[in-house]
Amino acid sequence: MNESSETRYIRVLHVEDDERWRAIVEEALRAEGFRVSTVESCAEAERLFSESYYHLLVLDIAFDSGNASNIEGMQLLELLDQRGLGTTSVIFLSAYGTKDMLRKAFCDYRVAAFLDKYDFDPMAFINVVKKVFEQIRGKEEPERMRKEPVEP
Q1: pLDDT tens column, 14-38
Q2: Across the strands, what pairs with 13?
Q3: Structurally, how many domains does the chain consist of?
Q4: Does residue 76 lie within any of the structural domains?
Q5: Which residue, among 67, 44, 8, 124, has the nearest Cα to 59 in the 3D structure?
Q6: pTM of the model as a whole
Q7: pLDDT (0 to 100) of residue 5
Q8: Residue 122 — φ and ψ, nearest 5°?
Q9: How far is it, in rounded angstroms, from Cα 33 to Cα 7?
Q10: Considering the domain boundaries, does residue 102 fall inside one?
């Protein structure tokens, strides 16, 4: 395990209806020391998101239409945003997505990246996650500095 003191505090929620993809992504993230919760439905994602804070949301766009609790990834993102997505960043990992959908995701929400499942590379994925984490960390540090008293 390549757990660093920095990644072990980063909470990631991965929403994916395909069991194989959940395992692949979870394994890659855990190998780098990230704290990962994986769920297969949007309903589960809503519940977990309402109970805990996540730094990063890894989200599929298209879910199994046979499961009535699943809604499209964009709809879940809109719903979570309405309920207070806050500072949570988003990575879409999907085999689907139109240019209009991606444009909306990048302009209206905190979508940091879109990765295509067809050419998925676990190390490239982890590099993107780490870059997003660096952005998160860069935004949190100034906030933390403002809250801490400054010694004369």
Answers
A1: 999 889 999 999 999 999 999 999 9
A2: 37, 57
A3: 1
A4: yes
A5: 44
A6: 0.78
A7: 52
A8: -55, -40
A9: 5
A10: yes
CB 115 within 8 A of CB 131: no
- The domain in which residue 31 lies consists of 7-147
Question: What's residue 98's pLDDT?
Answer: 65
- C-alpha 129/C-alpha 77 separation (Å) is 18
Specify the length of the chain in residues.
Answer: 152
Q: Among residues 126, 139, 138, which one has the least CA distance to residue 31?
A: 126
- Residue 118's CATH number: 3.40.50.2300
Is position 138 within any domain?
Answer: yes
Q: What is the reported pLDDT for 112?
A: 86
Residue 102 structure tokens: 């991606």
Could you tell me the CA-to-CA distances from 8 to 31, 39, 96, 126 in Å, in that order? 11, 20, 31, 14
Q: How far is CA 106 from CA 55, 91, 93, 111, 149, in A?
A: 17, 10, 14, 5, 36
